[in-house]
Design a protein that fits this description.
The chain is α/β, with parallel strands linked by helices and about 250 residues long. Helices cover about 35% and strands about 25% of the residues. It has 10 helices and 10 strands. A hairpin with a 2-residue loop joins β4 and β5. It binds adenosine-5'-triphosphate. Adenosine-5'-triphosphate binds next to β2 and α1. Keywords: Amino-acid transport, ATP-binding, Nucleotide-binding, Transport.
């Protein structure tokens, strides 16, 4: 069974068919890449998968559970977690605190709980340890106490990935994780995603095909709201319809 399945999903904006009967499957432990020229419907698809937009028709399943029309926070709780093109961080907080805030709301904030401070402190320590271990995964541990504003653009992307891991996602949805990142760091990010995919599904929209191509297990290509090709990187990138869509 696939981790996520879209079955004939459509989404309209007035007269524009942003998604036109899209059927697509994302497997666990696979890196699934979504490509397509500007305006082909990729962002709309991500917004539908993460609950920002409700599809006008069609169904979405997380394994065997119908999740069509669920709200972003409900999908987040079910394990569909998204990272953004521009990382959403707190620049003046430390790298570690930014990761801890990946889990919200912080349990210790409740007034009632503050009466039981020893328990609260223990939980804070556990969260900090978990966050630190995640920083090791994304290789930012040595910067744990630096304010996030000191990180480079690529390091901020790693921080955003670290934050998303605090909730133990089942599916990580990423909108252009390599945008503005130098090739060396882009490869590091992709290597980290390759490690992560052992336990989760990864669904990525990315334009930098030269770098990402070696890492994708399965590719979907969209054009004018439709899936026009799917398969291995080679099959899809050499598909004449895909070539026409990009060149045309
Ligand atoms: N909120 C909206 N209101 C009206 N039209 C929209 C809206 N969002 C997207 N569209 C239209 O839907 C179509 C698909 O847009 P979408 O942003 O999903 O494409 P995309 O493949 O993500 O493009 P890009 O690579 O430029 O981000 C386009 O014609 C776009 O103009």
């Amino acid at each position: 069974m696939s981790l996520l399945k879209l079955d004939s999903v459509s989404k309209y904006f007035g007269g524009i068919k942003a998604l036109d009967s899209v059927t697509l499957e994302i497997e666990n432990s696979k890196f699934t890449l979504l490509i397509g020229p500007n305006g082909s419907g990729k962002s709309t698809l991500i917004n539908v998968v993460t609950g920002i937009y409700k599809p006008d028709s069609g169904s979405i399943f997380l394994e065997d559970r119908n999740i069509t029309g669920k709200k972003p926070h409900e999908l987040y709780k079910l394990g569909i977690v998204r990272t953004f093109q521009n990382p959403q961080i707190f620049p003046n907080l430390s790298v570690l605190d930014n990761v801890i805030l990946g889990i919200s709301p912080i349990k210790g904030e409740s007034i009632l709980r503050s009466l039981f401070k020893p328990i609260w402190l223990r939980e804070e320590e556990e969260l900090a340890e978990k966050a630190y271990n995640i920083l090791k995964i994304v290789k930012l541990d040595r910067l744990w106490d630096r304010p996030a504003r000191e990180l480079s653009g690529g390091q901020l992307k790693l921080l955003e990935i670290a934050r998303s891991l605090m909730t133990r996602p089942r599916l990580l949805v990423m909108d252009e994780p390599l945008a503005g990142v130098n090739p060396q760091l882009a490869k590091e990010i992709l290597n980290i995603l390759t490690d992560l995919k052992r336990d989760i599904g990864i669904f990525v929209v990315e334009h930098r095909l030269d770098i990402v191509a070696n890492y994708a297990d399965y590719v979907y290509a969209m054009f004018m709201g439709k899936v026009i090709a799917k398969g291995s990187v080679n099959d899809v990138l050499n598909n004449p319809t895909v070539v026409d869509a990009y060149l045309g």
